[in-house]
Amino acid sequence: MYEGSKHKLGEIVYSVVYNFLAKIVGFITTLLVSLKIGTTLDLDLYYLVTGLIGVVCGIIVTQESYYIVPKGLFIKTKLGFKSFTKYYNNVILIYTIILIVLAFLYLVFTLNLIEVFSKYSIDQIRESKNLLKILAIYMFFTPINTLMGNILNSMNFFRISTFVTLISSLLTILCLIFFDDLGTTALFIGASLSSIGAFIYYVLFLRSKEWVFSVNFKKLKVEFTTDLLYANAMSFLAYFKGLINNYLISGMGRGVLTGFNFGYGLHNMPTFLILSQIKIPFSIKISQLFHEKRLTELNEYIISVLLLLIYITVPLNLIFFAYSEKIVHLIYGHGKFDLSTLNSISEVFGNLSFTIPLSVFESFLFQIFISFNGLQQISKYTYVNNISLLVLNYLGLSYLGLPGFAYSMVFMYLIMSLYLIYFVNNRYNFIRLKGVFLQYVLLLFVSSVLILLTYNICSKLNFLNEFINLSFGVFVYLVAYALVMYIFNIGGNVRPLLHQLFQSK
């Protein structure tokens, strides 16, 4: 009887690789959108609707993490694989019924739904009504695909969901290439077809692993627990922020919502790439040291990791801030995006760059709690963080426009990073992190002076083309940054970490 993959490490490695490639392919997709579609209301509406669908997927992920997966694993351990499949078949059936209802309501009340969750009027979106209805397919299949991906994760097939994401992005690219004469419609069709393709792949893969799909209405039931309701509330808060942001931005003019999504996505790429590469090896090492009670070594290791992340992310932060307009115009300026959309992308991308070090810093501190089995102790932090961000994003966007969103994000990441340092120092008194944040502030100041000097020098080289000017400016800054690090021996304490990063003891 089949019970899942036994090769966890190999699956994790494949998952990381596929996830990395999926991000790259996703980035290529955004390039094609800028080249072939440009600034349209249809594109704004696409990001609005997919944002709504993302909320549904997020709630499913929450159900899985806090209730469904733990219970499923318990059933598989105690009763076997056959009972495990029966349990998940009932879960799939419940979600299918819910999603059929949601997709039907979306089809019937498309205009009304978008009017509620945006500042667009009925008259503005009426012409896009038929196009928007295509996304009902995407609305049904995407959450189901999320569920099936999580089922396979619980069977230790971690690579499959990331592989499917990669293939889905490639299918969308093919639609944009071969149906480019359809404009935005090609993107809508690509998203819907890729969701169907992903569903078919999941079903066929599960069947190849002795999964028997069946329906049993007699055993169909939904269980609610206090923990599940608590988790759902936390998840809803996290995704509700996005709905509010989209609602406010939709009233700022055509192309602004698209610009926001492109700028936000561009800013997230380096953060994701850094975290995806360091999370697994670092967390394994931290857990090992903690359980072996090597607390002094653990403190030194955590400090070294945090300093390494600061040394990497601070220059990225300042390069993106100083050269945001040049970078955005170089990437997206050769397509059909108008100047206002490009400016929106630059504005979001540049201002949000200051969150890169802070968000990586915060994520790693969170990972410490996971490694120490202390996530429950800091659960209140998530509520405070989400509620505060919701309020600040609302105030920032309402009164300051797009820059206000970035300011609120930077402020919250700063406050929450300081809070997490305080929390870690008090809960785990063998860890001393106060000096780490001081080094971040000092390095940010020194690097700001360096980027200001090098930017002003290179900006005078107007005879160079845009790409060479950008490349030369970044090169000069990085050389100056490296020299300062070397002369003052900044970063000497993290060199052993780089050597042993992927070594196991």
SSE order and pairing:
Elements: H1 8-36, H2 41-79, H3 81-108, H4 110-116, H5 122-125, H6 129-133, H7 135-154, H8 158-178, H9 184-208, H10 226-249, H11 256-291, H12 295-322, H13 324-332, H14 339-352, H15 355-371, H16 379-400, H17 402-427, H18 434-459, H19 466-487, H20 495-500
Helix pairs in contact: 1-8, 1-11, 2-3, 2-7, 2-10, 2-11, 3-7, 7-8, 7-9, 8-9, 10-16, 11-12, 11-14, 11-15, 12-14, 12-15, 12-18, 13-14, 14-17, 15-17, 16-17, 18-19
Report on this model:
This protein is mostly helical and 505 residues long. The chain folds into two domains: 8-24 and 40-220, no CATH class; 246-500, no CATH class. 81% of the residues lie in helices and 0% in strands. It contains 20 helices and no strands. α11 packs parallel to α15, α12 (295-322) packs parallel to α18 and α16 (379-400) runs antiparallel to α17. The longest helix is centred in the first third of the chain and has 39 residues, at 41-79. The radius of gyration is 24 Å and the shape is globular.
Summarize the structure.
This protein is mostly helical and 505 residues long. The protein has 20 helices and no strands.
Along the chain, the helix and strand elements come as HHHHHHHHHHHHHHHHHHHH
What structural class should be given to the helix and strand makeup?
A: mainly alpha
- Total helices: the number is 20
Largest sheet: none
User: How many structural domains in the coordinates?
Assistant: 2
* Overall helicity: over 70%
Report how far apart the termini are.
Answer: 35 Å
Query: What portion of residues belong to β-strands?
Result: under 5%
Low-pLDDT runs of 5+ residues are none
Radius of gyration: 24 Å
Kindly state the mean pLDDT as a whole number? 81
Total beta-strand segments = 0
Basic shape? globular
